[in-house]
Specification:
heterodimer; A: 345 residues; mainly alpha; ABC transporter involved in vitamin B12 uptake, BtuC; two-stranded antiparallel ribbon; 2 strands; globular; B: 563 residues; alpha/beta; Rossmann fold; 2 domains; six-stranded mixed β-sheet; 24 strands; 23% strand
């Protein structure tokens, strides 16, 4: 079996390098953009990198980065979860309101309650999508409104105010160690765990397989329904957790908490390099996407640019990200077509 | 490394289905190769299945609606043999493969694997009895690594149920080395060449410990080097005692690689023989072997000026240096195997795809590359192969579909008038004897044959000077088929329309073509006049058996066996 031919290896390896290069660029590109953006802003406004600003940027990014973790799990399997903002709102109110209803309730129980609400919402989403085989985009668009409606009917005109919440609870969202907020550190740990799960466990890799080629996934016997269901439950649980953290950070919770977050989260995920039609992208990339959006918002403030420009810039970034993905994909396909048929050396 | 060799080489006799099943179950539970793997290369001489065939399929039938794809599917594979399966397009080869893959369940017939009768109710059942099928279009997960593609759903695990990437990569490295090829297990599958995808699929088959390996046209888009490399891999597997079923249109490959061959025609088994003593002509005749229906009389005098002139047309990686002309009143048929690049040439002429080189002109007027608008303005009508997806708007009314290409003639003061549109549609529906319920009904309400007439009506309404029809009678009933044939002949004879027709059905090619051009692997390799064309000539030219076609007009030496 010594039929290795040096000439044979050539056509195999050069496209390989091309593909790897392209995908590495996409993964690390977001970090490069972030660094350049910070450098430029700091050049224009040296006080931008002050400790207060960094803390503000991190706190702002934390909730979105956490939501982006759940959203990434759903998006890599070629689905979408639009209900995360509403789940966050419901969880934030119901969990923080427990302090007023049950005197002396332990903080961990409040967290569990928030996560439980998220799990319940995720189960509903996932069950409808997996059993009825309806696109998740439409189902979660519906539950976005339904869950928000439930939230409004529970909250009514009321709100939870910071003074009714225990100081320890609020400290989670405001205290920090060496300039990094507690809540950011906790979320970083959760994100790292999520990234590890998606990378190293069968059920995680199978989410990528489902998003990459659903037909082939069915042929090799991956339980698609069960995997997609689990992804939605995870996304719900994470949105529930994000709701409680949101309450520790803002202190005041009314029925509008988390409104419109779903679109920011999807933006962060796509800008962070997760393919909108599934199959590729990482949790870490999505977290950096959230960090970039938060940095831009803060930088505009620091540079005295009207905050009205913020959504426009986010949109521009999104268009750039998907255009880049599309261009790379087309270029790659063309290069491959030509290389495949370049017959004799 | 030595340890890994033991783990990956077959630890079960090639045909022991229960062992394969046990293994599959173990792997699914996350304990790959944990069942006391004590293997080495399988020695067929002391395998328990030695004296019985690896696989026997008898009298399998399968129909899709009214189409009988498999009438009498028979095949017997022995251990340690590479068995060729040949037949024309539509002879039932792919259906037979899908039966073995567990994708299709035959309506009747018997399948015996290593002496045990089995029923395959799905791909998993097929894998469990030790069959691995490498389909024409490999089912690759482009975003996953090669190693993950090979081990998907049965990855080796380490402590804490985490995927053991290291073991996975090592096992692949061992298999790949055993097969004598190169493949980096860590790279992403996206962008792998077809050849490398096949290496990946073969690696998967080996890692699954499959004892029967079925390959559906694995060489269709490989270069000469890649074919050689594939053959070496297949030979390695065969020497290990596995049974290989090899399907190819290239008869020379079957002679080079296989020990026995089975010929199929019209869904039936024709014969199974050792290749020793056979020549290519024997196979060609067995593949064709039907009566030739000739066209009553192909006119020669009605042929007029050049309408379509195609010069040195190329699209990199798809077809190369294609030149031909079609005259007014002439029907030119493009024959060849599926995948030879015929539809792609038609698409490039009509401007759906860009061309990389060459010129196309209609009535002396050059066409821009990649502009269907230009092509339509020059007088081309295009009836695509996939009429449901590309030829019609299925959810739109019949009359609107007919008028769709002619709105510039139906406008009055900038508006399209419903009455004009209906009159136009009624007129053309009548001329083509379209059978419909209501003209305002959706195109989807028509039968397949009438849908095809609808697509034709849409273009005829523009009075085209050139009509390109891609497989115009595929999947339509015999009566309508004859009507379509007569219609195309009448268009050429009476209205002097130039017709370029793509057809994979030999009787149709023989009947319709004033001239027949044969394409193989992206090149035009032969041209026959109506009087000299025969099924044998076409099959020989299309499969590269030039020996059988001594009197060909052209025999381009596009052999894949060039160094």
């Amino acid at each position: 079996m010594t039929n290795l031919d040096g000439a044979l290896a050539q056509p195999t390896e050069s496209p390989q390098r091309l593909v790897d290069l392209v995908f590495r660029l996409r993964e690390y590109g977001i970090i490069a953009v972030l660094v350049v953006f910070i450098a430029v802003t700091t050049g224009l406004q040296p006080r931008f990198l002050g400790q207060q600003n960094i803390k503000f940027i991190l706190l702002n990014a934390t909730i979105f980065a956490l939501l982006a973790l759940g959203e990434t799990m759903v998006v890599v399997s070629r689905q979408m979860d639009l209900s995360v903002g509403s789940v966050l709102g419901l969880s934030a109110y119901v969990s923080s309101n427990l302090f007023g209803q049950v005197h002396g309730i332990p903080i961990p129980v409040v967290f569990l309650a928030g996560i439980g609400i998220g799990v319940a919402c995720g189960v509903v989403n996932g069950a409808i999508i997996a059993l009825a085989r309806v696109p998740g985009l439409v189902v979660t668009l519906a539950t976005l409104y339904i869950i928000r409606g439930i939230d409004i009917s529970i909250v009514g005109g009321g709100e939870v105010v910071a003074s009714s919440l225990p100081a320890h609870f609020l400290a989670i969202g405001s205290d920090s160690v060496v300039g990094i907020p507690y809540v950011t550190m906790c979320v970083a740990v959760v994100i790292a765990a999520g990234a590890y799960f998606l990378r190293s466990f069968r059920s995680g890799r199978e989410l990528y397989a489902i998003g990459s080629n659903p037909d082939a996934a069915r042929l090799v016997g991956i339980p698609i329904g069960r995997r997609v269901f689990s992804a939605y439950v995870a996304s719900g649980a994470i949105a529930g957790l994000a709701g409680v953290l949101w309450a520790t950070y803002y202190g005041t919770v009314d029925s509008t908490a988390g409104t419109g977050y779903e679109l920011t989260v999807v933006t962060a995920v796509v800008v962070g390099g997760v393919a909108i039609f599934g199959g590729s992208g990482s949790v870490i990339g999505a977290a950096f996407g959230a960090l970039l959006l938060s940095t831009i918002a803060t930088a505009l403030y620091a540079l005295n640019v009207s905050p009205f420009w913020d959504p426009a810039l986010d949109g521009l970034l999104l268009v750039l990200a998907i255009t880049l993905d599309r261009t790379l994909a087309v270029r790659l396909a063309n290069a491959m077509r030509k290389r495949t048929f370049r017959h004799e050396p | 490394m030595g340890k890994s060799v033991e783990m990956t080489a077959g630890d079960t006799p090639p045909g022991d289905p229960t062992a394969s099943l046990r293994r599959a179950v173990h792997q699914r539970e996350g304990e790959p190769f944990a069942d006391g793997a004590q293997p080495a290369v399988v020695d067929p001489t002391n395998s328990p299945g030695e004296d019985q065939p690896a696989l026997v399929l008898e009298h399998a039938t399968k129909s899709f609606g009214a189409v009988r794809a498999l009438v009498d599917g028979d095949i017997t594979l022995h251990w340690g043999e590479t068995h060729g399966l040949v037949g024309e397009n539509g002879a039932g080869k792919s259906t037979l493969v899908k039966v073995l893959a567990g994708v299709h369940q035959p309506e009747s017939g018997r399948l015996v694997v290593n002496g045990r009768e089995v029923t395959l109710d799905g791909p998993a059942a097929s894998r469990a009895v030790g069959i691995a099928v490498i389909h024409q279009e490999a089912s690759v997960f482009p975003d996953l690594s090669v190693a993950e593609n090979v081990f998907i759903g049965r990855e080796p695990l380490r402590r804490g149920r985490r995927i053991d990437f290291k073991t996975m990569n090592e096992q692949i490295a061992v298999i790949v080395e055993r097969l004598g090829v190169r493949l980096d297990p860590r790279r992403i599958a996206r962008g792998l060449s077809v050849a490398d995808q096949q290496i990946m699929e073969i690696t998967k088959a080996v890692s699954l410990n499959a004892s029967i390996i079925v390959m559906d046209e694995p060489t269709a888009s490989l270069s000469a080097h890649e074919v050689n490399r594939l053959f070496e891999m297949i030979e390695t597997l065969r020497r290990e005692g596995k049974a290989v079923l090899f399907i190819s249109h290239r008869l020379q490959e079957v002679f080079d690689l296989c020990q026995r061959v089975t010929v199929m025609r019209d869904g039936r088994h024709v014969f199974t023989r050792p290749l020793a003593g056979l020549v290519a002509d024997d196979l060609v005749q067995a593949m064709v072997g039907r009566e030739v229906v000739d066209r009553a009389g192909a006119g020669g005098q009605r042929i007029g000026d050049v309408v379509l002139a195609v010069e040195h047309l190329s699209r990199e990686g798809v077809f190369t240096d294609v030149s031909f002309t079609v005259h007014a009143g002439e029907i030119v048929v493009l024959a060849g195997l599926v995948g030879a690049g015929r539809s792609e040439v038609a698409r490039a002429i009509f401007g759906i795809d860009h061309r990389d080189a060459g010129r196309v002109s209609v009535n002396g007027r050059p066409l821009r590359s990649g502009s269907p608008t230009d092509a339509i303005a020059a007088g081309i009508g295009f009836v695509p192969e996939d009429r449901r997806q590309q030829g019609l708007v299925m959810a739109m009314a019949i009359d609107r579909n007919i008028a769709l290409a002619s709105y510039d003639h139906l406008k009055r003061s900038g508006l399209i008038w419903g009455a004009l549109e209906r009159r136009f549609a009624t007129d053309w529906a009548g001329r083509l004897l379209l059978k419909y319920g209501r003209l305002s009904g959706n195109a989807s309400t028509l039968s397949g044959g009438n849908q095809q007439k609808l697509v034709l009506a849409k273009w005829l309404g523009r009075h085209p000077s050139l009509l390109i029809v891609d497989e115009p009678t595929r999947g339509i009933d015999v009566a309508t088929k004859a009507e379509v044939h007569r219609l195309l002949e009448a268009l050429a004879a009476e209205e002097a329309v130039a017709v370029l027709m793509i057809s994979s059905e030999l009787p149709e090619v023989l009947r319709m073509g004033d001239r027949t051009l044969v394409m193989r692997e992206g090149r035009l390799v032969a041209e026959f006049s109506h009087s000299e064309v025969s099924e044998e000539h076409i099959v020989a030219a299309a499969t590269g058996q030039t020996a059988a076609a001594g009197d060909l007009v052209t025999t381009d030496a596009m052999g894949h066996d060039t160094p």
